[in-house]
Amino acid sequence: MNLAKLAPGEKGRITAIGAIGPMRRRLMDMGLLPGEEVRVEKVAPLGDPIEVRIRSYHLSLRKKEAEGIAVEVTP
Amino acid sequence: MSAAPKLPPFSAAHPAAARTITVAVAGNPNSGKSTLINAIAGSRLHVGNWPGVTVEKKEAAFEHEGRRIRLVDLPGTYSLSPYSQEEIVARDYLAHERPDVIVNVVDSTNLERNLYLTVQLLELGIPVVMALNVYDEAQAKGHRIDVRGIEARLGVPVVPTSATRKEGLAELLGTVVATADRRQVRTPAPLSYGPDLDAATGGVARALEERHPELTAHFPARWLALKLIEGDARVLEETALDRGALVARPLEHLVAAHGDDVEAIVAEARYGLAAGLTREVLEKPRLQKTELTERIDRVVLNRFLGIPIFLAAMWIVFKLTFDLSAPFGDWIDAMTSGPVKRWAAALLGMIGAPGWTVSLVNDGIIAGVGFVLVFVPVIFAMMFFITFLEGSGYMARAAFVMDKAMHAMGLHGKSFIPMVLGFGCNVPGVYATRTLESGRDRILTALLIPLMSCGARLPVYVLFVGVFFPNRPGTVIWSLYVIGIALAITMGVVFKKTLFRGEAPAFIMELPPYRMPSLRSLCLHTWEKGKHFLTKAGTYILAVSVIVWFMLNLPWGVQDKKDSYLGKAGQVMAPALAPLGFGTWEAASSLITGVIAKEIVVGTMSEIYAPKPAHEEQAPTFAEDLREIGTSFAGAAREALSNVVSTAGLSSISIDKADEAPSPLKDAVRGAFTPLTALGFMVFVLLYMPCVVVAIAMRQEFGGWKWFGVAFAYQTALAWGMALLIYQGGRLLGLGA
Fold first, then answer.
1. By the 8 A CB rule, do B31 and B76 touch?
2. ipTM above 0.90, yes or no
3. Residue B508: its chain A contacts at CB < 8 A?
4. Cα dihedral B491, B492, B494, B500 in deg (nearest 10)
5. Does residue B83 surpass a pLDDT of 90?
6. Do B113 and A48 touch (CB under 8 A)?
7. How far apart are CA B175 and CA B40, in angstroms?
8. Pairing between β-strand A50-54 and β-strand A37-43 as defined by DSSP bridges
9. Is the predicted pLDDT of residue B209 greater than 50, yes or no?
10. Which range marks the domain in which residue A33 is found?
């Protein structure tokens, strides 16, 4: 399961960050780290990117980047 | 700010020291840092660039309670990683220049992520003063922040501030001075990242102190050790240290206990600290209302409404920018070409200067200065609205809505706004690329902006369409705009696959809470940008204007324009244009002067094709001139207002201004071109090289002439190819005779 597959309103707990190099570092700097809970808020009108809520703030990222973030769905 | 506790331990002022205190201001984007700096330093701010990069640098020097303070604004960053230009600039400054104090601006409504940067700043061992900014907003939301708790846990003084309300600023500066004076004793104690990482860091730090004392004399050993453990690429490159040899042993236990993803372990340790501290000091009301930002976003980012709202917002910004500024631009134009030139001529006549100096001063210098000034209203208006869009938080939403479409061209969602502005004038479009984070996106966007048909190209279209396509002027002009857009999309894809091959930068962007930017901050920012344009661009444009004057009027006493240097250059260039169907020296010369602005093509054509006989006008008196300046300014203001109020179309791109009256220029053009070559010529004018002001804007934004060179080369090749296609293709179809 990965973050791109969650529908708006669904939540998940991050299990791994699959990206590499600068992008991986950027995701971690923005607070996307294993163990954190992340909630998908919206999908952009054209279907990409998505908006998520993490650490009490709002972040947007493309589905391609979200695909690299493994999550387990939480209720 | 009554809820703010007093700060007993840090308030004692040191009497003696008279040296300047250097203060670096660091913080996340959207933390209100710029507003805070503007509120503190205001007009004393000096804006420039950090050496070698196009990241903006703001500095201010002033006195506070008799002490000299030098404020250096670091770029807004989320972290001190070695990847983005902004982060590198910020960390290099902190690590190498070691300011006396860091003011860390923290968004009180978003503590956890902001504290992640705080934790990294504390690693540097430089005294930190925290400005708990937007404190009023956090209070309004019912957040209770234990300010003393943060002070106790981090060992740094904390001052609640509200930059927009100008609260807490004097206290902040007082605390900065006190902290600087106690520098030796108040260096914050290292924070604990947990026993395993602490032990590893200590081990590496000791190894560094033993084996590389020259490095630990310059950098704090613990900071350097952490950077080595993370595998920080820039530190490794700078110090040429052998990471493996230094960290292998100290890391053994950490890796055995937590796995070998050391970079993530360090990031987790920092975020763990930030999250733990936030839990301890922040109390939110149990029942949380849906925030205003979320309610706005439900509409603004709605599946069906999102794009219409975005397009409406763009239309309003475009209309306000160009309609509001156009009357003032026209007024400046009328002033410099009318009264100012008359006065200059009169003045030069009085001191008995020769006739050619009048022409040089009027047609070279004053025309050039006037040309720069005409841009001022549009640059100011554009900067004002762009700054508003950014400061309010809408810019990020616009990027969110448009990103998918722009990404297909290899661009970023934020590229859309600069490109839209390009339709009014390419120059503000190029400046607006600053809103993009990555250098690649900025350059690629700026390269495509000149394909957006700007207002200055319209007079050329109007002239030719009026002569050759009087029955469907709208269709022809509209199709020129479409050709520009289609080629921009094509070139975007081409550049993505050639010059800009490789991964497009990631789109990982915060959607900050909506905020009303302060008018003072907006005006200051607008003024800085306008001033920058005036001083830098002005010099170059003036020089080019004077050069063109000399080209038109040399050799001395030239009568026929064909024999001037410009005419001769036109004759040299003409054969290259022959395959396009307009290989005449007249057309070539007009295109050369188009470097100043494409609308000047028309002016040169009228001078070459239909020279005006010199005739004496009844010159108005000085007093009449002055009255005229005043009344026409009032007229411009009225017009600007009515432009904004009126809902009737975009006056800046309306074509009904085309005058139907016959003129010698039109007759000459009718003789020199055919409908087919006229179409080719218009497409050539649309596409060929960006004007000199765009060139200067590109140089200012991207350093050096390289990217202008690329734009020049590809556009001129594109113009030539397209005009060739039209002319030769048309002839094959039997269209042009």
1. yes
2. yes
3. 23, 26-27, 30, 59-61, 65
4. 130
5. no
6. no
7. 14
8. antiparallel
9. yes
10. 3-74
The C-alpha of A75 sits at a distance from chain B's nearest C-alpha, in angstroms, of: 20
Query: Which is more confidently placed, B272 or B593?
Result: B272
pLDDT confidence of residue B618: 58
The verdict on a CB contact (< 8 Å) between A49 and B507 is: yes
Q: Which amino acid is at B633?
A: F
Which residues is B103 bridged to in the sheet? B25, B129
What separation in angstroms does the CA of B21 have from each of B62, B64, B175, B534?
Answer: 10, 10, 12, 32
CA distance B649 to B647: 6
- Chain B residues closer than 8 Å to A33 by CB: 264, 267-268, 271
Mention every residue, 6+ apart, whose C-beta is less than 8 A from residue B489: B409
| Average pLDDT for chain B | 84
Question: Domains in chain B, please, with CATH?
Answer: 8-181 (3.40.50.300), 195-283 (1.10.287.1770), 308-611+622-732 (no CATH)
B477 with A35: CB under 8 angstroms?
no
Query: Which residues on chain B are in Cβ contact (under 8 Å) with A35?
Result: 268
Cβ pairs bridging A and B (under 8 Å): 107
Task: Give the three-class secondary structure for B106.
Answer: strand
For residues B654 and B458, give the distance between their C-alpha atoms in angstroms, rounded to a whole number.
9
Interface touch B301/A51, C-beta < 8 Å: yes
Residue B96 has pLDDT above 50, yes or no: yes
Helices B221-230/B111-123 angle, 10° precision: 120
Label residue B519 exposed, middle or buried (CB < 10 Å: 0-12, 13-18, 19+): exposed
pLDDT in tens, B555-584: 776 777 778 888 888 889 899 998 998 888
The total domain count for chain A is 1
Distance from CA of A22 to the nearest CA of B (A): 6
Average pLDDT over residues B353-380: 78
State yes or no: pLDDT of B737 exceeds 70: no
pLDDT recorded at residue B488 = 92
A64 vs B500, residue with greater confidence: A64
Question: In terms of DSSP bridges, do strands A57-61 and B508-510 run parallel, antiparallel, or are they unpaired?
Answer: antiparallel
pLDDT at B711 over 80: yes
Residue B541 in this model has a pLDDT that exceeds 80: no
Q: Which amino acid is at A36?
A: E
**Is B267 within 8 Å of A47 when comparing Cβ atoms?**
no
Q: Which of residues 5-34 of A touch B (CB under 8 A)?
A: 17, 22-31, 33-34
Amino acid at B658: A
CATH code of A9's domain: 2.30.30.90
Under an 8 A CB cutoff, do A62 and B509 touch? no
Res B566: pLDDT: 86
| Residue B11 in this model has a pLDDT that exceeds 50 | no
Which residue among B83, B268, B400 sits closest to A49, beta carbon to beta carbon?
B400
Mean pLDDT along residues B578-604: 85
Contact between B650 and B559 (Cβ < 8 Å) = no
* β-pair partners for B49: B56
Alpha carbons B689 and B708: distance in angstroms, whole number: 9
Cα separation, A19 vs B722, in Å, equals 43
Mean pLDDT of the B322-351 span: 82
Nearest C-alpha in B relative to A63: B507
Rounded average pLDDT over B212-227: 90
List A residues 32-71 in contact with B (Cβ-Cβ < 8 A): 33-35, 42-49, 51, 55-62, 65
